[in-house]
Amino acid sequence: MKKKIILVGGGGHCASCIDVIEQEGNYEIAGIVDSDSSIESLLGYPFLGMDADLDRLRALYDCALVTIGQISGPAVRSRVFLHLRDLNYEMPAIVSPRAYVSKHATVGEGTIVLHDALVNARASIGQNCIINTKALIEHDSNIGDNCHVSTGAIVNGGVTLGSGSFLGSNAGTKQLAVVNENEFVRAGTFFVGHANA
User: Residue 197: its pLDDT value, please?
Assistant: First the structure.
């Protein structure tokens, strides 16, 4: 029997996550939690309550995933992730069956790898990250916690993305570049940064 999972955040990113979870087939989506009480359902899944209800819902469900997007920064996703951890929710890593994650790579809890993303050997991805559609994480890269690698972005070999950083759509990085914590790399840019020592 599949474990049920609740999704915290009911916007556009959540819709993409739903599609991945349905395709992966490892969890049954119980419903959506959101700070907007006007949401009645999303893609057929019911509204279960607001953030304040997460404590009550923990008695009913073991698993949760943060499905809030990360355009304006990592603070909200990080806060919700830590709150879910404090409530002892299990937060699995979710990987689309259309993505490729090397058996020699690691993916942290609460991270989602969306359709057609590639994660190559010896790459390390932290907790509560979004590796978005068609992103490429090359060998030996180190992605910190609470990062968002956007659609079509390329993280080249040996790159470090500091925790909370954001790599915009179709952005790229030079190999061995270092993106600082909470740094925002604009869409379509090529980031050189500072070479690792």
Answer: 43
> What's this model's pTM, rounded to 2 decimal places?
0.95
Q: What are the extents of the domains in the chain?
A: 3-86, 95-197
CA dist 75 and 166 (Å) reads: 12
- What is the rounded CA–CA span in Å between residue 167 and residue 80? 21
Tally of helices (H runs) and strands (E runs) in the chain: 3, 22
- 95-197, which class in CATH? mainly beta
Q: Does domain 3-86 have CATH number 3.30.1070.10?
A: no
Q: Judge whether 172 and 188 are in contact, CB under 8 Å.
A: no
d(CA 24, CA 30): 15
- 17-60: per-residue pLDDT in tens? 999 999 999 999 999 999 888 888 899 999 999 999 999 999 99
Q: Structure tokens of 167?
A: 């790599």
pLDDT class for 97, splitting at 50, 70, 90? very high
The answer for residues whose C-beta is within 8 angstroms of residue 78's C-beta and 6 or more apart is 128, 145, 146, 164
